Amino acid sequence: MESPETVIRHDRVAMRNIKFLIAVLAGLFTLFAPDTAQAWGAGIHVAQGSFILDNLRLIAPNVAAVLATSPYDYIYGCISADIFIGKGHKRHDDHCHNWSVGFAVLEEATDNSTKAYAYGYLTHLAADIIAHNYFIPHLLYSTSATKRLGHIYWEFRADRFIAKKYWTLASKVVSMHNDQNDTLIRKVVKKSHRGFGAKKVVFKRALKMSDIINWRKHVEGAKNSRNKITRKDVSLMNNYSLNLIIDMLLKGEQSFCLRYDPVGTDNTNNSKLIRRSHIMRLKMRRTNRIFPTPPEIIDVKHIDHETERL
């Protein structure tokens, strides 16, 4: 018969396991729940930030100098906008994916660490122009899944091409002490910051789950693969995103990126409306022209579109 001390010890272990399981399930909900799943996941945002750090010559010298001194703060900024849970795709002034919020973070930054974080935050917004306005809306049009579930499904399918090292780096930077940066974003995003600490814990736990990689592979093997995402598709869209990021880090508020909505409200909402309309009129199109990438974005070529940078 076990001693009382042994029973207590086993109970504590069991409780820790239960808490871990709850955190894991909450983490999955955070990353992939209908209202929060992102078209570009943490892996691809970190891959984009890493490319910038490896090619600082492509951006404004003053910005490059800041990023060179605080690379981890920059990478943290590249993913922290997605820590906010339940932000949705509705347009409102204090949405964490608004340009006004991104530049307010930069304005409030007081040293190289927080400035690097702010530039990472703006990098995230520039990248999401492509993801939220063109890449995901077209795929939502192409599938019979609901807008919410479809967003999750296509995020899985796209993010599976990203090297595991970028997910590892994402987990590392979120686990670091980022108190100064977290204080800054809480100050700027006043309403949505409620519960930020708890959201960050869940987000951090989710990033650490190694099974995420296998889950994405499982989703890739799912049925209804008529509308496939290829590595070439993701690579091209990633290069469009990188060109927008570079343009924003070169020109700041003068960049043409600010003409576009990082939230992607209109095209995301219209994707299913157009699909239903075309089904009723028997005019479903198997084409990439439902939400075409604008010529002015395609014409930006700080880097070429052909080289794979995943």
Helix/strand layout:
Blueprint (H helix, E strand, L loop, with lengths): L3 H29 L9 H13 L6 H9 L1 H10 L18 H10 L3 H31 L4 H13 L4 H12 L3 H10 L7 H12 L3 H10 L10 H21 L13 H16 L14 H4 L12
Helix pairs in contact: 1-10, 2-4, 2-8, 2-12, 3-6, 4-6, 5-6, 6-7, 6-12, 6-13, 7-11, 8-10
N→C terminal distance: 57 Å
Rg result: 20 Å
Number of separate strands: 0
- SSE run: HHHHHHHHHHHHHH
Please summarize the sheet with the most strands: none
Output mean pLDDT. Answer: 76
Q: How much strand?
A: under 5%
What is the overall shape? Answer: globular
Proportion in helices:
55-70%
- Structural class of the secondary structure composition? mainly alpha
Number of domains: 1
Number of helices: 14
Low-confidence stretches: 17-37, 145-154, 222-226
